[in-house]
Structures are given as structure tokens and as C-alpha cells.
Amino acid sequence: GLPPKSRYPVKRLAGTPANALLQKRLAKLVTFTFSSYTPIDEIFIHWQTELGAPILIDWPALAKADFGPTTTIACAMIDQPWRDVLTKVLEPLGLGWRATTGGAIEITSAKKVQSELQLELYPLRRDFDGNAAPLRALAKRQAGGLALYDPTGKVLLVLESATTQRSI
Known about the structure:
Layout: H1 10-13, H2 18-27, E1 29-39, H3 40-51, E2 55-57, H4 59-64, E3 72-81, H5 82-90, E4 95-100, E5 104-109, H6 110-115, E6 117-123, H7 133-139, E7 146-150, E8 155-161, H8 162-167
Parallel strand pairs: 2-5
Antiparallel strand pairs: 1-3, 4-5, 6-8, 7-8
């Protein structure tokens, strides 16, 4: 019941959340066409080049969903933001994506994206009034998820799935 205390500076702990680092890149519109079936690793390499951010592939998780580097798919998008493109192409395949540390994107199974909890620290504006209830409501979407507000450092600590972290 005691407020958290640390000698470690809050500014260093609460950097920029992973989704915020990618916000501008994920909003950028993209057009591509893979009309003939293409190995999925070639598509991911193309995406990484066009997006300008590292894309990490969780091959063990993809293997459990029967996907390997040489698995072929066909896909096309016209003038769609990257955040929608990633979801629209990967979701029907049973795959998903999440922002990770350092402004990278991880492609993994949809189950992992929806169920595995990630910790993010959201620095709040100095003029934040302390009413963290709406922010906590966003975070309480998953069993085991947690959102705590540190009034001293004005930081919201959220332990939630990648899907929920994107909405926050």
C-alpha cells in the first residue's frame, strides 16, 4: 500500500513508449502489390525497407502456426497506413505484430500479441491533474493486466497486451 520509491531517476525509466516511437512511421500511407505468391520473408524484408524500422520475426512462434521463411502468400494494399496494413495482412493468417523496444516491430503469433503482457511506462504531462481513472480503464482489458499511476514521477505504469498498449 506504500507509494513506490526509487533512487533511479523517473526520466530515465519513463522514456518514450514503443508505440509512440513508431507513431509517425505507422501513420505513413503505403501501397504495394504481391499479386503472385511470394515467400513471406521477402515480403517482410520489403516492409522493413519501406517502413524504415527494424522488423523482428519470431520464427519459432510462426513455425507453430505453420509458417516458415519460404511460406508463400499474396497480398496488396493501396494507400493504407502501416498500422492497418500490418493488421489486415497478418490477422487473417493468425499472426500479429507489436511495437518493441527501440522502435522495432515484432511479427509473431496473434495469440502471443493478444495474451502476452508487456510493460510500458507512459510519462504524463506535468500539468496532468492526477485523475488516472480513464487511463486505468483503458488498461483493464485483460486478466492479469495492471495499470498504476505514480503521482511523484507523473508516470503511468501499464502491464498489458500489445493490442491494449496500442490503444493507450
